[in-house]
Amino acid sequence: MNKLSRRATTAAALTVLALGGTVAATAPASAATTRAAAASYNGACGTGYKVIDSTPVGNSGKVFLTWNESTGKNCAVTIRNTTGAKIYMSVELNALVGHETTPVRDAGEYKSYAGPVYVEARGHCIEWYGVIGNASGGDSGHCG
Predict the structure, then answer these.
(1) Which end of the chain offers a freer environment for a tag, N or C, measured as fewer CB atoms within 10 Å?
(2) At 40, phi and psi to the nearest 5?
(3) What residue range is the signal peptide (predicted)?
């Protein structure tokens, strides 16, 4: 804390004391306590799946994209930053195969995550998308 901040804090405390109040000591909030917890991958896709990308879903969480080299499948899961009351959530995964594509989706009222969903994607590009309440996010790419 710099000298000016210390003086202002001291002056404010003296004013409170002069008016008959009490002053409680408080520590400044750290950056970690003021920032929302970030979602982390929870392993929902299973053994052999590695996270290859993630996309924010507003400020509510992330949709994670994983790949399993041995099976040639992608998997996606939408995860909230913090578990809470049930809320509408969804995850969608789509292998872009020519002009005809059929996304795989899981949607419902969940406390912590939606999914996992899987697509056979070896040799194709993919799209992934997630929703948590009114927030949404998605991306495409990872062709191969």
Answers:
(1) N
(2) -125, 150
(3) 1-31
Contacts for 112 with CB less than 8 Å, ≥ 6 apart: 42, 79, 80, 83
Please give the structure tokens belonging to residue 22: 């009490």
pLDDT digit string (tens) for 11-52? 333 333 344 444 443 334 434 333 457 889 999 999 999 999
CATH architecture of structural domain 37-141: Sandwich (2.60)
What integer pLDDT is reported at residue 101 of this predicted model? 75
| Secondary structure E strands in 16-124 | 50-57, 61-68, 73-80, 87-96, 104-110, 113-120
What's the predicted TM-score (pTM) here?
A: 0.74
Is the pLDDT assigned to residue 88 strictly greater than 80? yes
**Single-letter code of the amino acid located at 57:** V
Q: List the structure tokens of 139.
A: 């991306």
Provide the 10 A C-beta neighbour count for residue 35.
9
116 prior amide bond cis, ω within 30: yes
pLDDT in tens, 68-87: 999 999 999 999 999 999 99
